[in-house]
């Protein structure tokens, strides 16, 4: 749990595991359990740190907050699978303006081209 | 000024349509990718410069013999010391068009930059959550997905190469090495800056043949350049197999992964076929003398409109 990035990952992993919204306190306890499992010497996590991470994730549009009750409860906006799909869509999509965002090893291949290549490679 | 403006207009038209069409059909760019890249950049820059310059010069005809005296006259009008009547309505219109086109080009460049940065930052956020650092390679992330993909996400010191687990399973260590060399070349040679400039050029003037042809040519040239660098360290058969394996695998994805994206495939890049045919039926690199000639020609192309605009008295 060295960087904020690692913490964001851990928080998202927990939120993805939980169907219902949970509070920062519960998240802190769950995170502390995990760190003690991994590394007994790590310092206990402060709730404020968890809240910082949550508000960063909220700004990025990954987490939403339920303000109806106090303390506020947090949940993941979409599932891990949907985020993976979004990521892959960006990687494999073929809109011209995406080309400048990331440089792919292989651009879009038509199904016909792919079939020809598979035949040449001697694969089904 | 009058003849300068007509000459620049003729140059602008030539660079907007016939020249890029001929260049995009030529076979030599694959044999001299660097020279071709320089030529495309100079066509875009000289084209933009002569478009704006033609309108500017024609607009300034009533005000002076050359650009400096014309701009001086324009400044006097804008300051209110001279009457607008000396300019006339049509010439004022040409000057406004020149100003609008310049502003449009600069604004589109900035907007494209902003949009690309925002998409990259969103992509980096998602990667941060969904990928894990490679255990044996620096600046490399691995995403848990079966589709074989490899790409790099540029971002200065935060540039990363991303590989999928599907790719790692599919390729042999040698083939993977070829893929990584290819991707690192994109990052090292700053290909994303070229893609940015030409993407902006295309979205600024989408109806112009040159902007679309230039963007397609540049996307395919950078792949050839990256392949050429990879070929210095791996043999051709390895690279060809890697390209073929990744290409045939990525089209085999389940439909739900790609969602509705098939509908938005505006122009399927023919880059993969072009790369493979270049690798399988290699033509020797263009002779050094010719490459130098092409680069010199490209620089001349850029120098002509610049000189016409700045040096007084070349054309009346």
TrEMBL record, chain A:
UniProt keyword DNA-binding, yes or no: yes
One example of a Gene Ontology biological process annotation: negative regulation of DNA-templated transcription
GO terms, molecular function: DNA binding
Keywords: DNA-binding, Transcription, Transcription regulation
Pfam families xrefs: Penicillinase_R
The family this protein is said to belong to: Belongs to the BlaI transcriptional regulatory family.
Full protein name: Transcriptional regulator
Organism: Arthrobacter psychrochitiniphilus
Automatic annotation (TrEMBL), chain B:
BP GO annotations: proteolysis
Domain Peptidase M48: start-end pairs: 121-203
A GO MF label: metal ion binding
Domain of life: Bacteria
Cofactor section: Zn(2+)
Record's keyword annotation contains Metal-binding: yes
Keywords: Hydrolase, Metal-binding, Metalloprotease, Protease, Zinc
Cofactor note: Binds 1 zinc ion per subunit.
InterPro entries reported in the protein's UniProt record: Beta-lactam_resp_regulator, Peptidase_M48
PANTHER family per the UniProt record, alphabetical: POSSIBLE SENSOR-TRANSDUCER PROTEIN BLAR, SLR0241 PROTEIN
Family: Belongs to the peptidase M48 family.
Protein's recorded name: Peptidase M48
Originating organism: Arthrobacter psychrochitiniphilus
